[in-house]
Amino acid sequence: MKKLGIAGLVAFYLCVFPMVNLWALAITDVGGIDSFIASADLGNSGDATEEAWVESILGYDVDYMTSYDSFGSDWTLLDGESDVYAAELSGSPSHFLIKIGTGGTDLLSHYLFENNEDFTWAVVDFSDAGIDFAENNISISRISHVGEFGDLIEVTEPSSIALIILGTIGLMIQRRRFAVSKVR
């Protein structure tokens, strides 16, 4: 009976709090921290304004891949960190921006980051960008949207290609030996 009561409490908790992450992400799960590049107050800007700003910072034309709403529940505080959050990206961009709702704060609205290591994740140390959630009395839920720029093409490692070539050569040699032994 006691086990049934505990199971009932666990089931109730899972039904009432479904949005709570039951696991913690570590920095090793999502790559390293992405590099903060610049910030600006662009206000209620559109895609064209954001793209022009990113191009002015980087000094070259970029492809604005996508822009999408982002919610606080999309972001996970990394295990053992105080202000490093991670969120999955929709593509594999070389750079991404985060727009933050700034109402009632002295914060800037747009923050540009260079994507490092695992390109499918945004890993942001908000203190690098000068954002202190406690000091500004805000939370991660202030993120309005994420914009992704410059899709990266994954390049196969040379060692992987070498292994494939060696394996193919080995199979060809084995097949030849088998054919010669059948003739004898």
Observed structural traits:
alpha+beta, 184 residues, 31% helix, 5-stranded antiparallel β-sheet, single chain
Descriptive account of the structure:
The protein is an alpha+beta fold and 184 residues long. Helix content is 31%, strand content 25%. The protein has helices spanning 2-16, 27-30, 47-58, 158-183; strands at residues 35-40, 64-69, 76-77, 84-88, 93-100, 110-114, 121-125, 143-151. The strands form 2 sheets. It has a 5-stranded antiparallel sheet, with helices on one face. The longest helix is centred in the C-terminal third of the chain and has 26 residues, at 158-183. It is elongated, with a radius of gyration of 24 Å. The N and C termini lie far apart (76 Å).
Structural class: alpha+beta
Number of strands: 8
What does the largest sheet look like? 5 strands, antiparallel
Low-pLDDT parts are: 12-22
- Globally, the shape reads elongated
Order of helices and strands: HHEHEEEEEEEH
How much is the average pLDDT? 82
Distance between the termini: 76 Å
If strands are numbered along the chain, what order do they take across the biggest sheet?
1-6-5-8-2
Number of domains: 2
Summarize the structure.
A hairpin with a 6-residue loop joins strand 3 and strand 4. The protein has a five-stranded antiparallel beta sheet, with helices on one face.
What is the element layout, followed by pairings?
Elements: H1 2-16, H2 27-30, E1 35-40, H3 47-58, E2 64-69, E3 76-77, E4 84-88, E5 93-100, E6 110-114, E7 121-125, E8 143-151, H4 158-183
Antiparallel strand pairs: 1-6, 2-8, 3-4, 4-7, 5-6, 5-8
